[in-house]
Structure to design on (344 residues):
């Protein structure tokens, strides 16, 4: 085990069999090493991002997601520019220095509308990072939003395996386009995040090994991984949730593979298990993303059943989150928390 971890941390490519061995082992030592790797780059600091879920409209029909267009029971809403700016204002007061604008793929927010919102946030909060998470768009659109002042972009690749991608998405979505978007974002200069769900239907350990290889090649600044959780109004309603231990092991492996990654302990992890995010931090995560959306819309942004929204994941409860992070040996800080480039 020790030599495998040494080699992973040394930047070596492991074989499929070796990765599989790491993915199946129960090993506190793996987490210890992951924490040490994180602490060497970022210290024991946890960065927080204020998540503003600004539209629940989506033109896509992904089989796993509660916001899919075929879910007629979903409650749809859009925040106005003023509401979004209001979220930023309260977030800034609470200590947030990164705002994440996340939404479904909603044509209403075309380049003009979105660029106007981004540039206004940029004008009012020059010391903050602006992260967008609004799905697949064209190169020119990404460029325009970057020029308007966005710095970071989250677009999970969902799975690096084409066949598995086809199992999770309708035919009009292609894994090639998803990967092209990620490369465009990086080229433009965004701190780019990809990511995938653990335990999504049809996922095998082989697929996860492919995801890790894809991440090694893409060299993203961030990777979002969390357990798959079923949503009752989707074709995957009866599928089972992703595994906690496997999710934690993958977080640790990602940290060791790329020590400078910004790695969130996700809301999905906190939904799967009350202490999920603390466990994520103990496995090497260094980002949390509390919810800054207006209270009355939080229950409407339901990617999966029982998504937590009002406890320590609510931006208003930063004090509680701080305590939880402290219990995991870490300090929640007021900082933009930018990606640190390292040579290896
Ligand atoms: N369970 C867990 N994560 C989900 N996502 C969407 N639906 C689910 C689900 N049912 C994740 C996807 C998407 C991100 C915004 O949320 O990976 O990229």
């Amino acid at each position: 085990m020790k030599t495998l971890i040494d080699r992973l941390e040394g930047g070596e490519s492991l074989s499929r069999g070796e990765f599989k061995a790491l993915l199946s082992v129960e090993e506190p030592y793996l987490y210890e090493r992951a924490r040490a790797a994180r602490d060497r780059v970022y210290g024991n600091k946890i960065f927080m991002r204020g998540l503003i879920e600004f539209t629940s409209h989506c033109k896509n029909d992904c089989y796993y997601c509660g916001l899919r267009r075929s879910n007629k029971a979903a409650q749809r809403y859009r925040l106005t520019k003023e509401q979004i700016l209001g979220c930023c204002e309260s977030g800034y007061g609470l200590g947030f220095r990164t705002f994440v604008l996340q939404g479904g793929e909603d044509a209403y927010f075309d380049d003009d509308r979105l660029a106007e919102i981004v540039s206004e946030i940029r004008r009012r909060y020059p010391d903050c990072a602006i992260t967008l998470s609004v799905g697949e768009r064209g190169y020119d659109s990404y460029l325009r939003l970057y020029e308007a002042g966005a710095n970071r972009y989250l677009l999970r690749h969902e799975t690096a395996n084409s066949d598995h991608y086809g199992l999770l998405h309708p035919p009009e979505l292609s894994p090639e386009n998803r990967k092209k978007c990620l490369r465009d974002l990086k080229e433009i200069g965004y701190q780019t995040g990809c990511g995938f769900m653990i335990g999504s239907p049809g996922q095998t350990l082989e697929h996860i090994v492919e995801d890790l290889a894809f991440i090694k090649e893409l060299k993203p600044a961030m990777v979002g991984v969390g357990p798959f959780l079923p949503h009752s109004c989707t074709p995957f309603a009866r599928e089972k949730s992703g595994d906690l231990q496997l999710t934690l092991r993958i977080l640790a492996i990602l940290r060791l593979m790329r020590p400078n990654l910004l790695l969130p302990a996700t809301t999905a992890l906190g939904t799967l298990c009350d202490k999920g995010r603390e466990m994520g931090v103990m496995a090497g995560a260094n980002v949390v993303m509390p919810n800054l959306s207006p209270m009355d819309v939080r229950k409407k942004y339901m990617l999966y059943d029982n998504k937590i929204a009002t406890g320590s994941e609510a931006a208003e409860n930063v004090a509680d989150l701080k305590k939880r992070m402290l219990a995991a040996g870490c300090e929640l800080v007021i900082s933009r928390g930018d990606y640190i480039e390292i040579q290896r």
The chain has a mean pLDDT of 96. The chain has one domain: 30-333.
